[in-house]
Specification:
Elements (H helix, E strand, L loop, with lengths): L3 H39 L6 H22 L15 H35 L15 H27 L2
Helix pairs in contact: 1-2, 1-4, 2-4, 3-4
Length: about 160
């Protein structure tokens, strides 16, 4: 990607999201280990461990998405386009980035409604009563950042191809 001030800030913010996602994932690992040891040694697992791990895993996946996209770590099926001319490959990448960015933006927007409903109806997990809305702000922010990242990558690829 063409660095630039915006690109550098976008990469830094995406990296911060990914680091936070890693911290959440480590905490979920510690929770699972504590629950397994508690079950094995004291016959007392951590109550609701699977609920907490489920929510934490969703949060960490949300947080990894923008960084993964900026690092081109997403799964791409390029069997067909790898043999096409560079101009066609650029157009396909641009269209894919724009489509993915649009979808990520829609997810972020719709998650705002899910957040509002989850708060309004006080949805919570079954065993420990953890409020489910806590995961939504991470999803909204991550999908919003993913949308910006997708459009940034698409435009950067276009300018790189156009200037070659």
């Amino acid at each position: 990607m063409a660095p630039g001030a915006f690109g550098e800030r976008l990469h830094r913010l995406s990296s911060a999201f990914a680091i936070l996602g890693g911290v959440v994932l480590v905490l979920m690992t510690v929770l699972v280990v504590a629950s397994v040891l508690g079950r094995a040694i004291f016959s007392r697992p951590v109550p609701g461990d699977f609920e907490i791990v489920g929510i934490g895993t969703a949060v960490s996946v949300f947080l990894f998405l923008p960084y993964c996209y900026l690092q081109r770590g997403n799964v791409a099926v390029d069997i067909f386009i790898s043999h096409m001319p560079p101009g066609v490959q650029c157009v396909m990448d641009l269209l894919a980035g724009a489509l993915f960015g649009t979808i990520a933006g829609l997810f972020s927007w719709r998650m705002l409604f899910g957040l509002a409903d989850t708060i309004r109806y006080a949805d919570s997990s079954m065993i420990v009563g953890l409020p489910l809305w806590w995961a939504y702000p991470f999803g909204v922010a991550s999908f919003g950042l993913l949308a910006v990242s997708c459009f940034y990558v698409a435009l950067a690829q276009y300018w790189q191809f156009h200037n070659e």
